[in-house]
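>> received
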Amino acid sequence: QVQLVESGGGLVQAGGSLRISCAASGRTFNIDSMGWFRQGPGKEREFVAALAWNGGWTDYAGSVKGRFTISRDKDKNTMYLQMNSLRPEDTAVYYCARGVVPGSRRLSTYDSWGQGTQVIVSS
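>> returned
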């Protein structure tokens, strides 16, 4: 089993930046890919970004491409999401998860979900 814990959320003004983290523990050798998802108020959970844990590819939703950057530090077993040029519509609880099918954006192909970290972007 892999355990994931998100941190770093908070309140930021529109146009600002924030970096959130996802710390992995447990059977981290089982990680092939990881992803970030978000769920805004009254909305369904949606894909944000994903990466190959050993490198090789990253993937972004169109709504965040060019503004968000996903990365990871394997030595620290931690994944990051750098969010720039934040917009009020980025307000959501952000979740990280382990990818079971590399390259997939479908929620059903992710497991070991964290508890989420709240990001609020004020206008």
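>> The chain has a mean pLDDT of 97.
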